[in-house]
Design a protein that fits this description.
single chain; 114 residues; mainly beta; 6-stranded mixed beta sheet; globular; 0% helix; 4-stranded antiparallel beta sheet
């Protein structure tokens, strides 16, 4: 069973940083690209970042480029999202997922507010 468990969200002031973590299971981690999405109530889920199976190629949404950094740890079967210079528009529930596996975890809430 494919599972994603996100953590690390919270309340942070504008300009602050957070590091999200996602623990995965149920698929071959080392050969699968991973992605982060986010969702605000009433809106569609939005792509944030993707990292390929090697960890060398990364893609980011224009809205987070230069501020967010995605990484992965094959030994731990985890992926991370380092979020810097956060602003209120980054407020959302953040989810991780994997290419080819249409499953979602419970997400982790990120709130950016002064």
């Amino acid at each position: 069973q494919v599972q994603f468990v996100e953590s690390g969200g919270g309340l942070v002031q504008p300009g602050g940083s957070l590091r999200l973590s996602c623990t995965t299971s149920g698929f071959v981690f080392g050969t699968t690209a991973l992605k982060w999405y986010r969702q605000v109530p009433g809106k569609e889920r939005e792509f944030v970042a993707r990292i390929d199976e090697t960890g060398r190629r990364k893609n980011y949404a224009d809205s987070v480029k230069g501020r967010f950094i995605m990484s992965r740890d094959t030994n731990k079967k985890m992926t991370f999202l380092q979020m810097n210079d956060l602003n209120p528009e980054d407020t959302a529930v953040y989810y991780c997922t994997a290419d080819g596996y249409p499953a979602w975890g419970q997400g982790t809430q990120v709130t950016v507010d002064s």
